[in-house]
From TrEMBL:
Taxonomic source organism: Comamonas antarctica
UniProt cross-references to InterPro entries, sorted A to Z: PRX5-like, Redoxin, Thioredoxin-like_sf, Thioredoxin_domain
Family: Belongs to the peroxiredoxin family. Prx5 subfamily.
Swiss-Prot/TrEMBL GO biological process terms: cell redox homeostasis; cellular response to oxidative stress; hydrogen peroxide catabolic process
Name of the protein in question: Glutathione-dependent peroxiredoxin
Length: 169
């Protein structure tokens, strides 16, 4: 499993991008993880699935609400990752009114989840291989904080915890 001090994996994820104004899509666009994180402080929040109860009611909304505070604490970007495709992530972002506060990034084939060792096997529950629930603070591509939840928990990966860590970093 990835740990503090490790570099983010060299994988490509996808992000749905809409043309502002006329509503036409230009996504999904590739996101080269190492390139996108270079020279930035990034708060990564990973969830098991878009539109799922805890993810939609607590996890993502906390990061949307704390976006300005996280940026004031030195975070350049907030990324929300899920093992969903870019279209689903884009629709979930619109549903959650994230605007430009959070980048909604799809890990459609679980490449990032597998490369970091942060997978969650929900086979038998109809969800297949997913990402574990966690938050991560990354500086210039290196992990400086990692908060991985236990099975079925939502205790350490919330926005308030990562905000406190960003302020202390």
């Amino acid at each position: 499993m990835i740990k503090v001090g490790d570099t983010l994996p060299a994988v490509t994820l996808t992000e749905y991008v809409a043309v502002e104004g006329n509503g036409c899509s230009i996504g999904p666009s590739p996101v080269q993880v190492q390139e996108a994180a270079a020279g930035k402080t990034v708060a990564i929040v990973a969830v098991p699935g878009a539109f799922t109860p805890t993810c939609s009611q607590k996890h993502l909304p906390g990061y949307v609400e704390q976006a300005d505070a996280l940026k004031a604490a030195g975070v350049d970007e907030i990324w929300c990752l899920s093992v969903n495709d870019a279209f689903v992530m884009g629709a979930w972002g619109r549903d959650q009114n994230v605007g430009s506060k959070v980048r909604m990034i799809g890990d459609g084939d679980a490449a990032f989840a597998k490369a970091t060792g942060l997978t969650l096997d929900l086979n038998g529950k109809g969800l297949g291989l997913r990402s574990n629930r966690y938050s991560m603070l990354v500086k210039d591509g290196k992990v400086v904080q990692l908060n991985v939840e236990g099975p079925g928990k939502f205790e350490v990966s919330d926005a308030a915890t990562l905000l406190a860590q960003a302020k202390a970093a």
